[in-house]
Design a protein that fits this description.
Layout: H1 2-10, E1 15-16, H2 17-24, H3 28-40, E2 44-46, E3 53-56, H4 59-86
Antiparallel strand pairs: 1-3, 2-3
């Protein structure tokens, strides 16, 4: 659902939650959960007005964020694997 919400926001102007929910036919609670998740990943912005309007961050910026997150994940896995090898616990 996160991808669907992001793509919808990326193709238009900022929208209120109710508008997004109605257009995508998504339960409002599920939508706001998805929007919070996308915001936490830096993929969606919310205005400070009430009710908030949501907009997608430009795709190239999202791509950079995802690449950075995957690189950090790979470093963590590599460090974990080196620790296992050091302890003689290799696969």
């Amino acid at each position: 659902m996160d991808a669907e919400v992001y793509l919808y926001l990326a193709t238009g102007e900022p929208k209120k939650g109710r508008e997004i929910s109605n257009e995508l036919k998504i339960n409002r609670m599920q939508l706001y959960r998805s929007l919070r998740e996308l915001q936490s990943k830096g993929m969606v912005n919310a205005s400070s007005e009430y009710p908030a309007r949501f907009s997608a961050v430009l795709f190239n910026m999202v791509l950079e964020l995802l690449i950075k997150a995957k690189k950090e994940q790979a470093k963590t896995l590599q460090a974990s694997n080196q620790g296992r090898t050091h302890l003689g616990l290799s696969n």
